[in-house]
Amino acid sequence: MAHFGIFLLGLLALLSHVYVAAGNGGWSNAHATFYGGGDASGTMGGACGYGNLYSQGYGTNTAALSTALFNKGLSCGSCYEIRCVNDRQWCLPATIMVTATNFCPPNSNGGWCDPPRQHFDLSQPIFQHIAQYKAGVVPVAYRRVPCRRRGGIRFQINGHSYFNLVLITNVGGAGDVHAVAIKGSRTGWQQMSRNWGQNWQSNSYLNGQSLSFKVTTSDGRTVVSYNVAPARWSFGQTFTGGQFR
Fold first, then answer.
1. Which residues contact 184 (CB under 8 A, 6 or more apart)?
2. How far apart, in whole angstroms, are the C-alpha atoms of residue 49 and residue 47?
3. 89 contacts 97 by C-beta, under 8 angstroms
């Protein structure tokens, strides 16, 4: 009976490993490290253009993605569920939800972010929810999950006349914006081009017009926010529109 119990425990451990490796339930394998310091101050800014992650509502539940996951910036805003696996010495029994807010470039972080590796460089506070600090790097399982946001999509209008650069944040649902269109009160809909991160650009003269936006995420869903910015808008202001449900 004792031998059977040992065999059964071994079989269960093997099956749990196969479950993760096979991606059952949408789970995939990767590794995770951390950066940014104990207060996550080093995670501010970043390749997605979000700036202050606290004021934008992302807090410390953030990650920099390796090249294999970053998709040249199109993955900015996507959300992931992550748990530490297959390392009894360092893993903690917790699951975290994070938003992609930065890029972990190749030839950094000990090579963990080099292609074709799938890797998450987490903020230090959120890393310590799933693993001990001394671990440094741990194996993880992850899957895409819907983003849950409070309030509507935010549009921060930067730039100048004939160069409207709109930072789009706080996007629910899939989270990662893949297409944006803008409409002035005296124009039709015009497709915007992605400048960098989640900054979207229009070269039209839209001063003195109320502005509407169409936002489409990677799953093909679209939210239209009509007349989000009033005709008296000015550069540097942020406006709130609709939201994915």
1. 204, 206, 209, 210, 211
2. 5
3. no
d(Cα 70, Cα 67) in Å, to the nearest integer?
5
| 3-state secondary structure at position 6 | helix
pLDDT of 43-70, one tens digit each? 999 999 999 999 999 999 999 999 999 9
pLDDT number for residue 7: 38
The one-letter code for the residue type at 84 is C
Tokens 């080093």 correspond to what residue?
42
> DSSP states of 34-85 as a string?
EES-TT-GGGSS-TT----TTTTT-TT-EEEEPHHHHGGGTTTT-EEEEEE-
Write out pLDDT tens, residues 22-41. 334 599 999 999 999 999 99
Look at residue 100 and give its three-state secondary structure. strand
Paired strand residues for 123 = 35
Residue written as token pair 């000990």: 110
> Which tokens in the block code for residue 152?
């509507």
pLDDT given for residue 15 in this prediction: 37
Report pLDDT digits (tens) over 148-187.
Answer: 999 999 999 999 999 999 999 999 999 999 999 999 999 9
Taking the C-alpha atoms of residue 147 and residue 245, their distance in angstroms, rounded to an integer, is: 10
Which of helix, strand or coil describes residue 124?
Answer: helix
Q: What is the pTM of this model?
A: 0.88
Note whether 138 and 86 are within 8 A (CB): no
Residues 243, 201: Cα–Cα separation, whole Å: 21
Q: How many residues does the chain have?
A: 245
